[in-house]
Design a protein that fits this description.
With about 450 residues, this protein is of the alpha/beta class. It is built from 13 helices and 24 strands. About 30% of the residues lie in helices and about 25% in strands. A 5-stranded mixed β-sheet has the order 16-17-15-2-24. The protein starts with a strand and ends with a strand. GO terms for molecular function: 3-phosphoshikimate 1-carboxyvinyltransferase activity.
Amino acid sequence: MASVLTLEKISALRGSVNLIGSKSLTNRALLLSALSSGTTVLRNILRSDDSKVMLAALRSLGVKVEENPADPTEVTVTGVGGVFQVNSTKEQPLELFLGNAGTAMRPLCAALALSSGCFKLTGEPRMYERPIGILVEALRSLGAQIEYLGHEGYPPLLITGCGKALGSETSASTSAEPRVVEVAGNTSSQFITALLMVGSLLPYPLELRVKGELISKPYVHLTCELLKRFGITVENRDFRSFMLHPATLCSPQRYLVEGDASGATYFLAGAAVAGEVNVYGVGKDSLQGDSKFIEVLAQMGAHTEVGPDYLKVSAAAQLHGLTIDLNDMPDAAMTLVPLALFTDSPIKITNIASWRVKETDRINAMATEMAKLGCTVETGHDYIKVNGRTPECLARKQQGQVPVFATYNDHRMAMCMALTALDRTIAIEDPDCCKKTFPDFFERLAAVTVR
């Protein structure tokens, strides 16, 4: 039976938070280090369920990963200098369990399609509900052999790697005619990211063309910028197409992972309601799109400051509601929902259809949990609107009702709903689900809590 955490009413958040490493950067950097020539020392990596499955997968693939016994956030990765070479067959494939980590499943699917060996990619039940068909079809168009072991378009997968000669009988050439692959951009940016991360390993130039509008563009920008650190230049044509040429991933020798900008949003949003918080490890030069969340808080009336390696927010006299398109930062967008309890008008977040294929259907989950507070909630295919200034909301608070929030095995649901403790005492089921990306979130929240 899952545990339940009771959070007594919080008066304010006040103090400083040193951020854990970014999940998005950690898993990307781990895989790129593994595929590179040379040895890479990665510092400030995130130690969480998502990075745990990536590290375990890389070790199973024969990658040498050494942990610093004096610092668990530092690892040294000796790259294989190209694709993975594993002596496994279709009859006895190498099985890799990837939990519910999209940042492991999607890029590894692409990397293994180019590798030698046979691989079975499995995960948690929710992973089998998260689509991967768009990526599989793109890889198949390059000659990859990928089979669905369950429902069409979803993991688990059986991948028979094609080696470096994937889709070509010729040796690598930057002057060869580029292969063109079209990828739908409206479901997950991770499909484009996966192809970008391994595209230079192909023996011919690769042009990725985006069909429709690409969602979550900052995450793709992050991938392109990280590839630069590993010696790969991606020609980004306004996020409508991308060009890569054959090249060798080269270790930068040392790489410091930025603090987690998504994790920062909870502390910054809480401070916008009451108090003042500095978060360290992410600032004005951050690669992460979620670092721009502080600008949304400024629009709502909070006092903000952006430094070279820190973000600072202090409370507004009154937070204002707004209608805002947050397609570029879907994870950070979730943090706005509980703020509807404190704004002078409703909050409406649009263009977030990707919420429905995350760790849970986040639109439905948020609507269900916010309704427990007495809020009125309106949802559609790609939006949510929450009004926290309703008579029912006030009545439930005055009656001393303690809502118990379900978390759906979704780390962000737990962290978002924790912010409602700034309004009243609450309870959160299965707080350990935060281990996916932020294992000590509630300890860090307690450290800046004022009651």
